[in-house]
């Protein structure tokens, strides 16, 4: 009974994260309980310059592969045997690189962004309020705390400097991002349903708007956004109270197009120079989660929908504490389908062109020094999305796709055959 109640609570929590259009992007931007410890990565001078592979990796990209491999070594628990329980292996140290609640930039990056904001030639009132808040915060808290709180409460201003200095339509990361969106839209369009069309059309519209994200973070608009917010240099407690009230009642960046533009910009900033295996495990999979979270729920409302869901749960051999809840069964289907499509999408990307294959091979040459490769990176980053939900839900809901993946068993040399859930869906 205790496990069922815990599962119900976890499912409700997860549903809250999934509800709403493209909630994956909200997820990627919020604060993670592990973020401060897990998000270390050094900054490279001039890393905002355009990157062109020309059939080889840039130095920035190579260095980031080294960094992410080193961080992964400190994140996973190598004392655990993968095939006995993947959750203990990727989550045992309680230091995931990313989680479903997202992650923050490292304090060094926040310092840099604040410095760039301060040195930016355009002076405006909203920026002054940010720095007044920082001063009030530092009178009672540490510098690191104030960097993170400034980021949390004034994200649109960070969106302003990020889109101004880092979001370039010709950069490799932006091209990766748009390519993933395009490939997703193309695949969704191939299966025409009304509910899928609604999501596809909205995403296509948002993608077009993202061609010029800077227009959503203009100084005059930010001044208007924070016009009613009172900030005092010597009254931190009043400032926190005012900021919490402002976010609940006035912020246009909490919802809608502005929120999506902000989240996409933050995601791209935090994804600089990373390999496609990262983008597919963190971005593409959430696109599919958003889609199936809508379509699978709609199907349960149709005649015989709940009975069909019950039969799927039995076919998937879900344990009783999962199968007893409609919400848990829905999530099992959502995440199984999402993982499968994200993995197929990544494999398709690799073989889509000679250049992609060369990039993939060269990345693997670097990762091999750390007993890693892109596929292991994909599986690990996907699995670490769900560390906070505990072993039971992870192994029996979120990792169902891993349990039927031939590449997973081959890469980790598991000595038993993967389960096949193809006939269940």
Supply Rg. Answer: 22 Å
**Number of self-contained structural domains:** 2
Shape: globular
Structural class: mainly alpha
User: Order of SSEs, N→C?
Assistant: HHHHHHHHHHHHHHHHHHHHHHH
End-to-end Cα distance, whole Å, is: 29 Å
User: Which regions are unreliable across 5 or more consecutive residues at pLDDT < 50?
Assistant: 15-55
What do the pLDDT scores average to? 83
What summary fits the major beta sheet?
A: none
Tell me roughly what share of residues is in helical segments: 55-70%
Number of strand segments: 0
The portion of residues forming beta strands comes to under 5%
Number of helical segments with 4 or more residues = 23
GO biological process, one term: proteolysis
Protein name: Peptidase M13 N-terminal domain-containing protein
GO molecular function, one term: metalloendopeptidase activity
Description:
The protein is mainly alpha-helical. It folds into 2 domains: 2-100 and 275-424, no CATH class; 107-169 and 212-269, no CATH class. It has helices at residues 2-18, 23-29, 35-38, 59-75, 86-91, 107-119, 125-138, 143-153, 155-165, 172-189, 194-209, 219-225, 236-249, 256-270, 276-301, 305-315, 320-323, 326-351, 354-367, 374-384, 390-398, 400-403, 406-411. The chain is globular, with a radius of gyration of 22 Å. 41% of the residues are buried. Mean pLDDT is 83; it is low at 15-55.
């Amino acid at each position: 009974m205790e496990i069922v109640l815990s599962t119900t609570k976890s499912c409700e929590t997860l549903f809250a994260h999934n509800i709403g259009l493209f909630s994956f992007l909200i997820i990627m931007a919020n604060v993670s309980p592990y973020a401060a410890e897990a998000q270390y990565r050094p900054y490279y001078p001039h890393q905002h310059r355009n990157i062109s592979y020309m059939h080889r990796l840039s130095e920035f990209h190579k260095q980031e592969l080294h960094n992410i491999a080193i961080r992964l070594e400190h994140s996973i628990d190598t004392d655990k045997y993968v095939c006995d329980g993947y959750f203990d292996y990727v989550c045992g140290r309680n230091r995931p690189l990313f989680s479903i609640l997202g992650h923050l930039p490292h304090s060094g990056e926040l310092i840099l962004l604040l410095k760039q904001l301060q040195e930016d030639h355009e002076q405006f009132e909203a920026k002054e309020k940010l720095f007044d808040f920082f001063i009030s915060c530092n009178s009672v808290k540490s510098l690191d705390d104030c960097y993170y709180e400034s980021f949390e409460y004034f994200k649109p201003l960070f969106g302003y400097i990020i889109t101004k200095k880092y979001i370039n339509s010709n950069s490799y990361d932006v091209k990766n991002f748009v390519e993933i969106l395009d490939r997703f839209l193309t695949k969704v369009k191939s299966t025409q349903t009304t509910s899928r069309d609604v999501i596809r059309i909205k995403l296509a519209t948002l993608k077009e708007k993202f061609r010029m994200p800077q227009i959503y973070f203009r100084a005059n608009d930010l001044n208007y956004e924070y016009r009613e917010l009172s900030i005092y240099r010597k009254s931190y407690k009043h400032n926190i109270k005012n900021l919490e009230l402002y976010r609940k009642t006035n912020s246009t960046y909490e919802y809608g197009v502005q929120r999506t533009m902000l989240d996409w910009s933050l995601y791209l900033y935090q994804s600089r120079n990373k390999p496609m295996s990262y983008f597919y495990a963190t971005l593409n999979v959430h696109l599919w989660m958003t889609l199936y979270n809508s379509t699978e729920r709609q199907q349960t409302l149709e005649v015989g929908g709940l009975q069909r869901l019950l039969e799927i749960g039995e076919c998937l051999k879900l344990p009783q504490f999962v199968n007893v809840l409609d919400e848990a069964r829905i999530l099992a289907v959502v995440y199984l389908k999402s993982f499968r499509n994200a993995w197929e999408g990544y494999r398709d990307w690799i073989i889509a062109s000679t250049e992609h294959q060369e990039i993939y091979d060269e990345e693997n040459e670097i990762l091999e020094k750390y007993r890693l490769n892109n596929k292991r990176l994909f599986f690990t980053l996907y699995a670490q999305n769900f560390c906070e939900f505990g072993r039971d839900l992870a192994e029996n809901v979120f990792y169902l796709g891993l349990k039927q993946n031939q590449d997973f068993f081959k890469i980790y040399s598991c000595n038993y055959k993967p389960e096949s859930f193809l006939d269940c869906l």
